[in-house]
Amino acid sequence: MRYFLDTQLYSYLANGTIAPAEWRAALTGRELWLSPVTVYELLEGLLKANVHTFPISVVALATAAEIPDARILPYPGIERRGVRRWLQAAGGELPADFHDFRRNIAAGRADFLAAIRRFLARALPRYHRAADPLFSADWQKAAGRTPGEHLDAAFVFHTAVLERVARIRYNAEKHPSDYLDYLQLRYLNDEDLSFLTADRKLVIMTQRSLESDRIYLWSELANREPFRHGG
Questions:
Q1: HSE, side-chain direction, 13 A CA sphere, residue 121
Q2: Burial of 224 (0-12, 13-18, 19+ CB in 10 A)
Q3: CA 51 to mean position of chain CA atoms
Q4: pLDDT digits (tens, 9 = 90+) for 90-140
Q5: Which residues of 14-51 are buried (b: 16+ CB within 10 A; e: fewer)?
Q6: Which of 46, 187, 219, 231 is most buried as measured by Cβ atoms within 10 A of its Cβ?
């Protein structure tokens, strides 16, 4: 089994929330891969860093950069060498393809939010009496899915964001990380990949996915609490 880490974990190691000994104990012997989405998030953190957070961002990026090129996960239109150049340019002038990637992220996030708005515009005010949107043909169409596709983690997460918007006045516009989580979860369509995160909310929001058994909380892997599932 191959593993890739949520961005937050690299930051937690850098700021001391995760001790180096705990990191080594949990990850030594595991085949670690790196998502371009994680690199993007870490670089965004560096670009927006202040005098206090800049050193943390630098250390987090250096840890991510230890993963070799051959273990950088694919992303449409992005070469592994390109992601390596991003890492090498950290703290300086970032390459043009990084800025292209930023625009790609912004456009994808706009589509992610637009799907939610399209569905709710049709479904409200009867939404609260409607059937489970996870199995709604209308929602699947709005989200750009083919009818009958399996309940992958990304779609289940997208649906969970939809439900939060509809039921608890959640303003998804103010949570750009939702779309980045969605992109990370799409990698789980590769059945040999598992995702490690410290985000308990993300784990809860993806419980109905057929891929939920490959989403691990750091606290599980670090033996702070029992495993929910094997792996």
A1: 7
A2: exposed
A3: 26
A4: 999 999 999 999 999 999 999 999 999 988 888 766 655 556 888 888 888
A5: beeebeeebbeebbeeeeebbbbbbbbbbbbbbeeeee
A6: 187
The CA-CA-CA angle for residues 46, 18, 15, to 5°, reads 35
User: What residues have CB less than 8 Å from 208, skipping those under 6 apart?
Assistant: 134, 151, 156
CA distance 181 to 154: 8
CB-neighbour burial class of residue 118 (10 A; exposed 0-12, middle 13-18, buried 19+) = middle
pLDDT tens, residue by residue, 5-60: 999 999 999 999 999 999 999 999 999 999 999 999 999 999 999 999 999 999 99
Asked if residues 18 and 9 have their Cβ atoms less than 8 Å apart, the reply is yes
43 within 8 A of 90, measured Cβ to Cβ: yes
Would you place residue 146 in the very low, low, confident or very high pLDDT band (cuts 50, 70, 90)?
Answer: confident
Place of tokens 């569905």: 119
User: How many whole angstroms separate alpha carbon 86 and alpha carbon 78?
Assistant: 11
Q: Does residue 226 have a pLDDT over 60?
A: no
For the chain, strand residue ranges (E) read 2-5, 31-33, 193-197, 215-217
Opening angle at CA 136, ends 132 and 142, nearest 5: 125
State how far the Cα of 181 lies from the Cα of 41, in Å rounded to an integer. Answer: 11
| pLDDT confidence tier of residue 69, bands split at 50, 70 and 90 | very high
The tokens of 179 are what?
Answer: 């779309």
